[in-house]
Amino acid sequence: MKRFKDSLGFGLLLNLLLPGAGHIFWRDYVFGLFVFLILLMAAALFFVSYIVTLPTAAKVALFILPAVFYLFTFVDLARSIRKDRKRTGRTLPAAAAFLLTALLFQIAAPITPVNFTLRNQPEIYRAEDNSLAPILRSGDLAWTNPLAYQVNLFFIDMPLWHQLPERGELVRFVDGNSVERTGLVLGLSDEEVEIVDGRLTVSGYPRLLNAPGGLRLRGDMPLTLVDPASILVANLNLGAVDQTRQVPLDKLTGRVSPLF
Question: Which pLDDT does position 85 carry in this prediction?
């Protein structure tokens, strides 16, 4: 550790965990603070983008430019370390304190990628049965992506919806008995959904079901009115609708995809 604290790798690691920390460790205080403030502003704009609808060009400017600047800070830090390698003068306890602070920042600060991932982490699970075969068979590994529909932001008490499920997607949800289940979306809020001879009809109009794996429905399903703020999901039996459930949107945990 004594030799590592003066190395290029240690400085880059600090900058990765806590933007600007590498520069500050090498006594470039002004630029280090500047880097931290720029990345702090970029993080704030990232969270705001979930609340305010922005055009594509604005998103590119808000996210790509700070990312390019952040990459440049690594290049600048590497140049400074190679130039002034013997000027740091930091002790081993000081280096350990810098590293500990950077690690704690990454875990505890709500604006960091690690903390954001922990609050919105995906779930990996095994399919419980063959109800969604051939898309998912019993024992297949799948993962749930909560960010597909909603995001958990530290300054809002409840998950924030940014997109609704689409027909034909696999979703994970919690049923009335607090059991997590997986289903295929057939209908959206306030729609009248029916299946006759494998043909899906929505509010009187035929619809194609863009299900994973090119799945085609079989059989019949009686006309069903989907409740407001809910979706209609189904379990299948070799492509035929075996069971349907009305799932309130607040019971969704994310979109499901096969892991392999």
Answer: 59
What is residue 208's predicted lDDT score, i.e. its pLDDT? 86
Q: Which fold has domain 123-258?
A: Umud Fragment, subunit A (2.10.109)
- Annotated domain spans of the chain: 4-119, 123-258
Collapse the DSSP code of 57 into the 3-class scheme (helix H, G, I; strand E, B; otherwise coil) and give the result: helix
Q: Token digits for 160?
A: 């924030």
Q: Which residues have a Cβ under 8 Å from the Cβ of 74 and sit 6 or more positions away?
A: 12, 15
Look at residue 57 in the predicted model and tell me its pLDDT.
76
CA distances from 107 to 21, 102, 104, 122, 160 (A): 15, 9, 5, 17, 22
pLDDT tier, 87 (very low <50, low <70, confident <90, very high otherwise): low
CA terminus-to-terminus distance, the chain? 40
Q: Please name the amino acid found at residue 234.
A: A
State the burial class of residue 231 (Cβ atoms within 10 Å of its Cβ: 0-12, 13-18, 19+).
Answer: buried
C-alpha torsion angle, residues 94, 96, 99, 102 (rounded to 10): -70
Write the CB contacts of 165 (distance below 8 Å, at least 6 apart in sequence): 149, 171, 185, 188, 231, 252, 255
214 or 92: which leads in pLDDT: 92
Q: Are 106 and 80 in contact, with CB atoms under 8 Å apart?
A: no
**pLDDT over 90 (residue 212):** no
- CA proximity to 183, closest of 206, 211, 159: 211
- Summarize pLDDT for 103-128 with one digit per residue, the tens: 999 988 887 888 888 888 899 999 98
On whether the CB atoms of residues 177 and 183 are closer than 8 A, the answer is no
User: Which has the closest alpha carbon to 206: 215, 197, 214?
Assistant: 197
Give dist(CA 181, CA 174) in Å, integer: 6
